[in-house]
Amino acid sequence: MGSLIGFGFIYLGLLAVWLYVLDQKIRHGPDPVGPASRRDDGLLAAAARRADHTESLTGSEGSG
Amino acid sequence: MDVVLLSRLQFAFTIGFHYIFPLLTIGMGVVMVYLEVQHLRTGDPLFETAARFWTRIFALNFAIGVATGIVMEFQFGTNWAVYSRFVGDVFGSALAAEGIFAFFLESGFLALLVFGWDRISPRMHVFATLMVALGSVFSSIWIVVANSWQQTPAGHHIVPVMRDGQQLIIDGTPVLRAEIVDFWALVFNPSTVQRLVHVWIGAFILGTFFVMSISAWYLLKGRHVEFAKKSFSGALLFATIASLAALASGHFQSKNVYHWQPAKLAAFEGHYESGPAAMSLFGVPDDSTETVRFNIAIPGGLSFLVHEDFSYPVVGLDRFRPEDRPPVLVSFASYHIMIGLGMTFIGLTLVASFLLWRSRLFTSRWLLWIFVFAVGGALIANELGWVAAEVGRQPWSVYPPLAWTADGDLVTGHSGRVEYDETLGLRTRDAVSPSTVPR
B91, CA 20 to 30 Å: which among B116, B229, B264, B390? Predict the structure, then answer.
């Protein structure tokens, strides 16, 4: 019974996280995309930009 | 409370929660691929807007699915140690294949899918989306293979567990385990393909209803209207096809269940006495009288379902010893509610498709409100499908093989009852960790 309660708490926590984040994303809604928002230069070019450190995949660049 | 029942409840609770997320990712993957291909084909930025939005939701579902899956696996050790020892060789192979062939594919391309929008070409992004969608589908293959082996074991033999060169014996009983002898016979065991197709269809229904639910909400609130119309229309196309396909898949699935697990189908239908069988539409099975109370049934319907003959005899629960029968009430209720919901989805999607064709769907607010909440029905239907499959498998963790005569009847023993080869089946009670079972 103890493990059932323990697993219950863990899964209820995960359910709460899922519902909260889902609600936030639905409230925020889609971001409009312009027709020229995307690059068309392929995977190798994207990898080269990563090697150059010219941009970050996570958008968290510039800290160092 | 009984430790076996507690262990079952815990596993049912955790797997039931985890099960939501793989289904959502499989179902949403199809919609995302559709939206991205449409964007590539038409250049309409609205398709990209929709694909980006659903990708964020997909990533959330994927993350929660991974978290719930990891936690769940601990129970194989805490509650089901004997089961794990018995099936470890079989399950280990299938779960390892899931990790190597599916999870790595899905996880690897997920990074490109989520973070690559403005960094790789649209074609490469479509490819990444396709790989993620395929990864989630491949993942389901190996999980269903492992589960189907429990239902219809094949490709293995039973060997004694050895310790220091000696056969391991506990309380005077030799300890046994299943060992793979034919990997592909295991993979393509008699129920894998049918069950896999049914699971995929269920996943497509849930994923598309999830997309339609959120889209319908936006339409009713007048927010992101064009985006919501695109998403709803795309999801409706797949939902309609999947709902109709579920009917056909369910039919073949039932026939397969009858052949390999006749006690399970008898429990699904509350069919206690062998003979020509009706198909119950509603009722409450009563084990004490071995009847279905308040029964509304199609005469000969089950016989027709199984044998295409309204008067052909169908094996009933009377051919099984009481201790070999699954719980009838839960099996019956979960199976019938699932089918009822499936029929509702067919009606809903056909009405919505008709109204879309007549350009009246997005002004039919009553229907949009139904779709906001219908995702709950899709979720319940999928969960109940698993409840029916797993409760119907009881009292076995690994189902023993059955034999049929050339005349299409079950092989029975001297008592007129089915004789199992006990070494090939594993009862649920015997599969629980011995340390948790009071002696």
Answer: B264
| Whole-structure pTM value | 0.86
What are the pLDDT tens digits along chain A (64 aa)? 777 888 888 888 989 999 999 999 999 888 877 655 555 555 566 666 666 655 555 544 444 3
Q: Mind listing the pLDDT tens digit for each residue in B337-382?
A: 999 999 999 999 999 999 999 999 999 999 999 999 999 999 999 9
Distance CA B175, CA B423 (A): 10
DSSP annotation string for B136-154: HHHHHHHHHHHHHHHHS--
Spatial contact of A26 and B83, defined as CB atoms under 8 Å apart? no
How far is residue B198's CA from residue B131's CA, in Å, rounded to a whole number? Answer: 22
Question: B410, B262 in Cβ contact below 8 A?
Answer: yes
CA B414, CA B434: separation in Å to the nearest integer?
33
pLDDT tens-digit series, residues B155-200: 888 888 888 888 888 878 788 888 899 999 999 999 999 999 999 9
Determine the Cα–Cα distance for residues B370 and A63; give it in Å rounded to an integer.
48
Written as six digits, the tokens of B247 are 């009917």
Q: Is B285 exposed, middle or buried (0-12, 13-18, 19+ CB in 10 A)?
A: buried
- Could you tell me if residue B285 is left (phi over 0), alpha (psi between -120 and 50 degrees) or otherwise beta? beta
Q: What's the ipTM?
A: 0.77
What is d(CA B344, CA B321) in angstroms, rounded to the nearest whole number? 36
Contact state of A30 with B43 under an 8 Å Cβ cutoff? no
- Which residues in chain B have their CB less than 8 angstroms from residue A42's CB? 120-121, 124
Q: Are the Cβ atoms of A29 and B217 closer than 8 angstroms?
A: no
Which two three-digit tokens encode residue B118?
A: 């403005």
Cα–chain center distance at A14:
17
Q: Which helix (H) or strand (E) holds B43?
A: none
Average pLDDT, chain B: 88
* Structure confidence by residue, pLDDT tens digits, B256-314: 999 889 999 999 999 999 889 999 999 999 989 999 999 898 999 999 998 889 999 89
B79–A3 CB contact, under 8 Å: yes
At A38 the pLDDT is 55
Q: Could you read off the pLDDT of B129-161 as tens digits, one per residue?
A: 999 999 999 989 999 999 999 999 888 888 888
Question: Cα separation of B85 and B28, whole Å?
Answer: 36
- Candidates B101, B173, B80; CA nearest to B143 is B101
Sequence-distant (6+) residues with CB within 8 A of B27 are B203, B204, B205, B206, B207, B208, B210
Distance from B370 to chain A by nearest Cα, in Å? 18
Helix B365-393 vs helix B328-357: crossing angle, to nearest 10? 150
Residue B395: partners with Cβ closer than 8 Å, 6 or more residues away: B323, B324, B325, B326, B427, B428, B429
Interface contact A37-B48, CB threshold 8 A: yes
